Amino acid sequence: MENSITMIKYQGLGNDYLVLDPNKNRVQLQGKKIALLCQRGFGLGADGVLYGPVEINGKMGVHIYNSDGSEAAISGNGVRIFAKYLIDHEYVKEQKFSIETLSGPVEVECLNSRATEFRVNMGKASFISREIPVTGEVREVINETFTFNKKDYKATCLTVGNPHCIIFMDEVSPEIAKDLGPYVENADEFPERMNLQICRRIDSGNLDIEIWERGSGYTKASGTGSCAAAVAAYRLGLTESRINVNQPGGIIQIDIKDDDTIYMTGSVGYVADMSVAESFFS
């Protein structure tokens, strides 16, 4: 197709991204164009766009965009997907390598020959309010009472490169996440908006979560959300340091080391090569 924009769709446990390689396209990415591409039914449909490889701080990196066109500092599933793209298209040949993001460098290890399983060093979490950010006095936001849609909830907030609000419940469902998510995302206490995970403890090594992502809405899986839920559960004494985080798209394994470094292990898969005419945006 002449004058077309080519992309590749991948998914990480049902959390799908379009990879748009600037070395193979001349399109200038803008928020409205990203939102159009991601719109299901009218566009190609995706939870976001990965724009790269690009140079960030002099190193190979990726810009991560939500489906509403806003830019995210980090995405756990997005990083694993982009790592697969780099291997599939021979930008890297090593099993271990680094990807630069807006939240800093992320160390990635490919665990199999098909490049479908990756282990990612996600760094360390912070519960400190000014770093998340959460308004009010500087404090660790742990098991604190918040009011969302006129109802009180005990919530733990933290950042793993992006902000998360974790609420434990006896039961979780997509309906609860969809109902509560917009209120949490846009609450006044969260000046940069907020991701939500509602969680249920299964046992000391397993959690169930449902996810509402800022800028994307309800999603089937989240890498950073899995990290945040696991670290919150561990901090609250609900789990051990190795946790399987069950979500509608599948399972992500989280390991919390003695120095509080978080490792995320999960799968990714290729979906399709895709293209749109440049006139799609006009």
UniProtKB/TrEMBL annotation:
It is found in: Cytoplasm. Gene3D superfamilies: Diaminopimelate Epimerase, Chain A, domain 1. Its EC number is 5.1.1.7. It catalyses: (2S,6S)-2,6-diaminopimelate = meso-2,6-diaminopimelate. InterPro entries: DAP_epimerase_DapF (IPR001653). Pathway: Amino-acid biosynthesis; L-lysine biosynthesis via DAP pathway; DL-2,6-diaminopimelate from LL-2,6-diaminopimelate: step 1/1. One of its GO terms (biological process) is lysine biosynthetic process via diaminopimelate. Pfam families: DAP_epimerase. Its main location: cytoplasm. The record marks H164, E213 as: Could be important to modulate the pK values of the two catalytic cysteine residues. Substrate binds at N15, N66, G76, N77, N162, N195, E213, R214, G223, T224. One of its GO terms (cellular component) is cytosol. It is an enzyme of class 5 (isomerase). One of its GO terms (molecular function) is diaminopimelate epimerase activity. Keywords: Amino-acid biosynthesis, Cytoplasm, Isomerase, Lysine biosynthesis. Homodimer. Catalyzes the stereoinversion of LL-2,6-diaminopimelate (L,L-DAP) to meso-diaminopimelate (meso-DAP), a precursor of L-lysine and an essential component of the bacterial peptidoglycan. Belongs to the diaminopimelate epimerase family. This is Diaminopimelate epimerase.
